[in-house]
Amino acid sequence: MSFGSLPDDAAGICAEGITVTYRNGHTALRDASFSLPKGTIAALVGVNGSGKSTLFKAIMGFVPTSAGKISILGGTVRDALRANTVAYVPQAEEVDWTFPVLVEDVVMMGRYGHMGFFRIPRAEDHKMVENALERVNMLEFRHRQIGELSGGQKKRVFLARALAQDSRVVLLDEPFTGVDVQTEDAIIALLREMRDEGRVMLVSTHNLGSVPEFCDRTILIKETVLAYGPTEDIFTRQNLELAFGGVLRHFVMQGADLHDDEEDKRRLTVISDDERPFVIYDHHDEDEEEEADAP
Ligand SMILES: Nc1ncnc2c1ncn2[C@@H]1O[C@H](COP(=O)(O)OP(=O)(O)OP(=O)(O)O)[C@@H](O)[C@H]1O
């Protein structure tokens, strides 16, 4: 897993020993390295404050790296900025929803980097916006105010903006927070299509349960990259305990530690650790709930 020379699949996103220190002197990322090939859906997994947003900002060129190097599709971060290579799908809380703007205008923002100085959309830009809205099943909402939409619908609109931008790299910040199962499935289906088109998607998520289902790769982060690679190699008890410590309370080895009474708990996923299957359970703690219910 060590970095060394650039691997063959470096043509997606590649970070080599990057360090990011904020102006107040806080180092949020230290000597972080990973590489993702094109045509990948990767999970960026870590606890609050582990540096996920900082890594996104570094890839987008919003914060400088004080050491190391990031390459995007073989070029620099500056090249990627210039070529409009990276799209960002924000968390709902990051956006000022009181700003009066139509759904189709939000999606058109994805085209800005492709337009001239005066940002006058051409027929091709309108077509891209229409196609993008159609792909996320939001065309009928095109003339609605963005602030009037539900959380899941807003997420779809920002995905459409990334599609309209036609960026090869898409960073998604917690795309499944506050969305229903149907919307989650629709987003996953869309990400798979985008992967098949050769794009790289990096998805920051706290929802470990769905990661093995749709992310080919995982980057585990805690102020540095603890591990990265194919999800089935990264999702080991040891790695997840390193990243989550005591937070991962119901991390139970099947066969070894699994007791009958635990079988009722909601199983999130089944994956393999050294050929032995294990399950990750929801954080739902029944003992605590029973105590809370007690008079
Ligand atoms: N602008 C800033 N100036 C100084 N420190 C910052 C700044 N932004 C973030 N940090 C610090 O850097 C660390 C990493 O923050 P970051 O936002 O990257 O974490 P995160 O993994 O995205 O967290 P979360 O899951 O809560 O969104 C935290 O300790 C945070 O307090």
Task: Give the amount of beta strand, in percent.
Answer: 15-25%
Number of strands: 12
Low-confidence stretches: 1-9, 249-279, 281-295
Summed up, the helix count is 10
Give the neighbour order of strands across the main sheet. 5-6-7-3-8-9
So what's the overall shape? globular
- Structure class: alpha/beta
For the sheet with most strands, the description reads:
6 strands, mixed
- What is the ordering of alpha helices and beta strands? EEEHEHEHHHEHEHEEHHEEEH
Mean pLDDT: 80
Ligand inventory reads: adenosine-5'-triphosphate
- The residue fraction in helices comes out at 25-40%
Report how far apart the termini are: 52 Å
Estimated radius of gyration: 20 Å
Name the quaternary structure: single chain
Organism: Litoreibacter meonggei
Protein name: Manganese/iron transport system ATP-binding protein
GO molecular function: ATP binding; ATP hydrolysis activity
Pfam families: ABC_tran
Present the secondary structure layout.
Elements: E1 13-21, E2 27-36, E3 40-45, H1 52-60, E4 67-72, H2 77-82, E5 86-89, H3 103-109, H4 123-135, H5 151-165, E6 169-173, H6 181-196, E7 200-205, H7 211-214, E8 217-221, E9 225-230, H8 231-234, H9 237-244, E10 251-253, E11 267-273, E12 276-281, H10 286-293
Parallel strand pairs: 3-7, 3-8, 5-6, 6-7
Antiparallel strand pairs: 1-2, 1-4, 8-9, 10-12, 11-12
Helix pairs in contact: 3-5, 4-5
